[in-house]
C-alpha cells in the first residue's frame, strides 16, 4: 500500500542522513519516478524533504526536522529482527523479507557490527522436523484468505475420525506445540473453533467477505477449554532412572520430587486420546501410579499394540 511505503520512507530518512532514490526504488520494488512522487506527497504533508543532485547527492529530511533520538533503540531493533527471522523459519514471505531489510537500513554502518552480534545471540526455529509441503501450502492459503476476509468451507476430520463440512470465517493462524491450527468462527456452531491444519481438506474459498470479529489474542482464547479445572486430571507417575532426562524435559524440575530413592512426577492434563498417546511414548521409562483407570487404559492400549505385532 502507498501509505505504508510513505511511512517507511519517512522512518528511513529520520534514521539515515541521506539515501539514494534508486536505493529506495529497489527496496520497495517501484520505479524511481514513483519514489519522487512519494517524496512530493511527503513534502505536501508538511515533512520537509530535500533532494540534491550529483555525486554524493540523494534524498534527506531537512536537518532541523531530524529527531534527536531514534524511534527504536538498537536493542529494540535487534529484538524485532530476531523475532522476524525466527518466524521466517516456518513461514517465509516477501513481506517478512522486506520488513527485515527495512529494519537493517535503520542501523548505521558504525552500529552494524554490534547490531549483528545482538541479532545472532538468539535464533528460535519454530518449524517442525520434516514439515510437509501440504502444511506450508495451507499456511499460505489461509494467510491470503485471512487478509481478504473470505468465508471458506472445509472438510474437517476430528480426532475420533468423524468427517464433517464446516463453513467458517478464518481469523488467526496458531502454532501450538509444533502443530499449526486455524482459529476461525464456525457459522454452523456460531462460535470460535480450533481446526488442526493436518485434519483439514477440500478447502473452498467464497467471494463472500465477513466483518472481522473481536479477538483478544493476548489472552490465548483457544486455551480456555484446555485449562478449565473440570477438564483436568491429576496424574502421579513413577519415573524410572532411564526416564529422568525425558521427565525433566517434558514436565520440568518443579513437577519432580524424590523420595526413598524414587523419582515421582505430579502433573495435570485433560484426559483424552492425546493423553494416552502422550503417556505411551515414554514406553517403559515411566509407570502410571494414579489414577487407576488411566493406568488400566494405557495397559490395555499397550496390550493391543503388542497383540498387533504378534499376529
Number of alpha- plus pi-helical segments? 10
Structural class determined from secondary elements: alpha+beta
Task: Just give the CATH class of the largest domain.
Answer: Mainly Beta
> What's the mean pLDDT score?
81
Organism: Bacillus changyiensis
Domain HTH deoR-type: 2-60
Protein name: YafY family protein
Keywords: Transcription, Transcription regulation
Task: Throw out a few tags for this protein.
alpha+beta, four-stranded antiparallel sheet, 4 domains, DeoR_HTH, WCX_dom, 311 residues, transcription regulation, Arc Repressor Mutant, subunit A, YafY family protein, five-stranded antiparallel sheet, elongated, SH3 type barrels, transcription
Can you describe this structure in just a few lines?
By secondary structure, the chain is α+β, with helices and mostly antiparallel strands.
Structure description:
Helices cover 39% and strands 26% of the residues. It is of the alpha+beta class. The chain folds into four domains: 2-65, Winged helix-like DNA-binding domain superfamily/Winged helix DNA-binding domain (Arc Repressor Mutant, subunit A), CATH 1.10.10; 74-120, no CATH class; 133-223, SH3 type barrels (Roll), CATH 2.30.30; 229-310, Alpha-Beta Plaits, CATH 3.30.70. The longest helix has 19 residues, at 292-310.
Please specify the SSE layout and strand pairing.
Layout: H1 2-15, H2 21-28, H3 32-44, E1 49-52, E2 58-61, H4 74-87, H5 94-105, H6 112-120, H7 133-148, E3 150-157, E4 163-176, E5 179-186, E6 191-196, E7 200-209, E8 232-239, H8 244-251, E9 256-259, E10 262-270, H9 273-280, E11 286-290, H10 292-310
Antiparallel strand pairs: 1-2, 3-4, 3-7, 4-5, 5-6, 8-10, 8-11, 9-10
Domain HTH deoR-type: 2-60
Pfam families: HTH_11, WCX, WYL
Protein name: YafY family protein
Amino acid at each position: 500500500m502507498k501509505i505504508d511505503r510513505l511511512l517507511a520512507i519517512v522512518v528511513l530518512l529520520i534514521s539515515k542522513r541521506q539515501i539514494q532514490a534508486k536505493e529506495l526504488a529497489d527496496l520497495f520494488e517501484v520505479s524511481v519516478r514513483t519514489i519522487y512522487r512519494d517524496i512530493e506527497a511527503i513534502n505536501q504533508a508538511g515533512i520537509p524533504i530535500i533532494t540534491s543532485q550529483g555525486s554524493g547527492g540523494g534524498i534527506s529530511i531537512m536537518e532541523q526536522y531530524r529527531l534527536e533520538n531514534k524511534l527504536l533503540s538498537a536493542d529494540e531493533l535487534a529484538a524485532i529482527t530476531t523475532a522476524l527471522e525466527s518466524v521466517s523459519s516456518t513461514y517465509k514471505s516477501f513481506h517478512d523479507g522486506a520488513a527485515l531489510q527495512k529494519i537493517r537500513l535503520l542501523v548505521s554502518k558504525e552500529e552494524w557490527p554490534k547490531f549483528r552480534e545482538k541479532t545472532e545471540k538468539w535464533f528460535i526455529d519454530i518449524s517442525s522436523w520434516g514439515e510437509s509441503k501440504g502444511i506450508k501450502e495451507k499456511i499460505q492459503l489461509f494467510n491470503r484468505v485471512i487478509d481478504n476476509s473470505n468465508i471458506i468451507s472445509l472438510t474437517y476430520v476430528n480426532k475420533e475420525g468423524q468427517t464433517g463440512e464446516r463453513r467458517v470465517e478464518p481469523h488467526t493462524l496458531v502454532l501450538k506445540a509444533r502443530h499449526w491450527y486455524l482459529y476461525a468462527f464456525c457459522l454452523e456452531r456460531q462460535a470460535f473453533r480450533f481446526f488442526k491444519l493436518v485434519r483439514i481438506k477440500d478447502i473452498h474459498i467464497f467471494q463472500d467477505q465477513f466483518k472481522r470479529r473481536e479477538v483478544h489474542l493476548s489472552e490465548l482464547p483457544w486455551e480456555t477449554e484446555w485449562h478449565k479445572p473440570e477438564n483436568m486430571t491429576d496424574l502421579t507417575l513413577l519415573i524410572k532412572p532411564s526416564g529422568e532426562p525425558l521427565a525433566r524435559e517434558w514436565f520440568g524440575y518443579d513437577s519432580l520430587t524424590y523420595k526413598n530413592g524414587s523419582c515421582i512426577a505430579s502433573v495435570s492434563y485433560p484426559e483424552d486420546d492425546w493423553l494416552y498417546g502422550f503417556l505411551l511414548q515414554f514406553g517403559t521409562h515411566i509407570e502410571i501410579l494414579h489414577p487407576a483407570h488411566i493406568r488400566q487404559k494405557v495397559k490395555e492400549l499397550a496390550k493391543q499394540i503388542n497383540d498387533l505385532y504378534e499376529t
